[in-house]
Design a protein that fits this description.
single chain; 121 residues; alpha+beta
Length: 121
Amino acid sequence: MDYALQRRAALRDLHTGGALTSNYCEADPYLLRAARHHGEPSGEQCPACKRENLVHLSYVYGDALGPYAGRIRTPEELTAMSGQFGEFTVYVVEVCQRCEWNFMIRRYVLGDGVPRRPPTD
């Protein structure tokens, strides 16, 4: 699922004064640290402050992942995981480290469809 329409509406509200800056530009400190150390450069300028490029974080969730759920994964790791797990959901969040803009831009399902027991380690 793509959240482009919601993102566009949020940006319109932000730029026209219909929303407080803190509604969209107040990232959790953990999210900012994760963006600094694990963010994948998007090549896109922040739509809120227009001063810094965004990074993307891909979080994985699903019962099949066991203890690996809730972690950040790179695109390469996601490709490998799609053949190792039956089904899991990826949530992609864009983050600006300067103004703290953050927005979930996409959600999608990966996996090979083969049911397995979740890993225990």
